[in-house]
């Protein structure tokens, strides 16, 4: 089994493959993740997502990757009944998440962010216009797009699809815990994924875990985190503190895991059944 | 008693579809959404192949394959998907 481990998207990425895949294909997979980060990061001024957020209210020409990102984010918003909402960027920024939380700031109670902004959302996800033919996206005015709850999972799906094309009969692309596995694992057995203290065997699925104890920080002595309840516009408070979702793909797993944290704990099973996924919560 | 028309031979339908789309794409006349008629199970969702002006049919097939990959398995809510084991993990899914 070949393995690559590297920093990407504010986290650690890992690519594992079995089968006849040469080093060039793995190098290409690493470059592809970097390319997607440069297109999608809201912390990179030259990214396409940053361009979208600067030009809310006007159509912006973007790559096919970003058309796909926004289209699937809107799809997730619809599928989850609005529990996953990529347009809560204003609320995320208002509590201070205006820079990439890599390193010490990603650990709760270890750092402060004191740059809150006041971008007030006026549009909804349902008002985003994605033109797949002209390859443009238009956000509603004064509305920001946050790819944080879908980007890593979708990147894992796209890169795994590339590796299948390169001949990887089995593999796993894991970006910060949001992962996609396909085909047989080492020795022909299913893939084994550690989730907390448990290990699960899975085949041909996506897995993602979200938690309110990561990317958390203090604002005016109040501990806040990055997972926003779309209804209140505040960090989710009544749901589970951690959710792992197994879905058909990593982007679906990631968006559903984010959505589960925004809802009440007693709604988890109902939501998971309705969304066609399996959930493990804490 | 209802009577249902016998479906055309799937391979023939596919050839006709492919030839038609190739011609349309080559002349850049129309943009179509064509339903793949090769499916035989009425319960199976239709696989939609989207073709844009100027596209080759091969591009549409690639996009269709990617869409299927992005949807992935759909049997997870009915019990498939994962088994808990007491063994070392290959990798981990942690909150990020």
How would you describe this structure to a colleague?
- The complex is a heterodimer of chains A (282) and B (96).
- Chain A is 29% helix and 27% strand.
- Chain A is built from 7 helices and 16 strands.
- In chain A, the strands form 5 sheets. Chain A has a 7-stranded antiparallel beta sheet with strand order 1-2-6-7-10-15-16, covered by helices on one side.
- The longest helix of chain A is centred in the N-terminal third of the chain and has 18 residues.
- The longest helix of chain B is centred in the N-terminal third of the chain and has 18 residues.
- The N terminus of chain B is likely disordered.
- The chains are: A alpha+beta (282), B alpha+beta (96).
- Chains A and B meet through strand 2, helix 5, strand 8, strand 9 and strand 10 of A and helix 2, strand 3 and strand 4 of B.
- Strand 9 of chain A pairs antiparallel with strand 3 of chain B, so a sheet runs across the interface.
List segments of chain B where confidence is low: pLDDT < 50 over at least 5 consecutive residues.
1-7, 27-40
The share of residues in helices of chain A is 25-40%
Instruction: Specify which chain pair forms the largest interface.
Output: A-B, 57 and 29 residues
Radius of gyration of chain A: 18 Å
The arrangement of helices and strands of chain A along the chain is EEHHEHHEEHEEEEEEEEEEHHE
Broad shape of chain B? elongated
Strand content of chain B: 5-15%
Strand content of chain A: 25-35%
> In which order are the strands of the major sheet of chain A placed?
1-2-6-7-10-15-16
Instruction: State the strand order across the main sheet of chain B.
Output: 1-2
Secondary-structure-derived class of chain B: alpha+beta
Number of helical regions of chain B:
2
Measured distance between first and last alpha carbons of chain B: 58 Å
């Amino acid at each position: 089994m070949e393995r690559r481990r590297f920093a990407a998207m504010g986290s650690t990425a890992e690519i594992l493959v079995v089968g006849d895949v040469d080093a060039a294909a793995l190098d290409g997979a690493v470059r592809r993740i970097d390319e997607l980060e440069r297109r999608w990061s809201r912390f990179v001024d030259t990214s396409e997502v940053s361009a979208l957020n600067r030009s809310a209210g006007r159509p912006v020409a973007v790559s096919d990757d970003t058309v796909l990102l926004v289209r699937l984010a809107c799809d997730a918003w619809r599928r989850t009944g609005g529990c996953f909402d990529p347009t809560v960027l204003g609320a995320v920024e208002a509590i201070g998440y205006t820079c990439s939380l890599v390193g010490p700031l990603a650990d709760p109670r270890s750092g402060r962010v004191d740059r809150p902004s006041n971008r007030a959302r006026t549009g909804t996800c349902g008002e985003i216009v994605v033109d797949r033919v002209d390859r443009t996206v238009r956000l509603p005015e004064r509305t920001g797009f946050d790819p944080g709850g879908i980007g890593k999972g979708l990147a894992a799906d796209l890169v795994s699809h590339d590796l299948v094309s390169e001949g990887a009969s089995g593999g796993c692309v894991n970006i910060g815990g949001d992962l996609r596995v396909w085909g047989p694992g080492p020795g022909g057995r299913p893939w084994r994924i550690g989730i907390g203290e448990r290990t699960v065997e899975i085949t041909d699925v996506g897995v993602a875990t979200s938690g309110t104890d990561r990317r958390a920080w203090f604002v005016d002595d109040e501990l806040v985190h990055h997972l926003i309840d779309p209804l209140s516009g505040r960090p989710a408070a009544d749901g589970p503190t951690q959710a792992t979702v197994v879905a058909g793909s990593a982007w679906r797993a990631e968006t559903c895991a984010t959505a589960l944290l925004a809802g009440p704990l007693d709604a988890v099973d109902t939501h998971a059944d309705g969304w066609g996924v399996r959930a493990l919560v804490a | 008693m209802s009577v249902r028309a016998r479906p055309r031979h799937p391979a023939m339908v596919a050839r006709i579809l492919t030839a038609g789309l190739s011609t349309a794409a080559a002349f850049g006349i129309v943009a179509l959404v064509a339903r793949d008629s090769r499916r035989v199970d009425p319960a199976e969702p239709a696989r939609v192949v989207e073709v844009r002006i100027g596209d080759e049919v091969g591009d549409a097939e690639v996009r269709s394959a990617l869409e299927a990959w992005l949807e992935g398995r759909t049997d997870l809510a009915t019990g498939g998907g994962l088994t808990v084991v007491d063994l070392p993990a290959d990798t981990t899914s942690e909150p990020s």
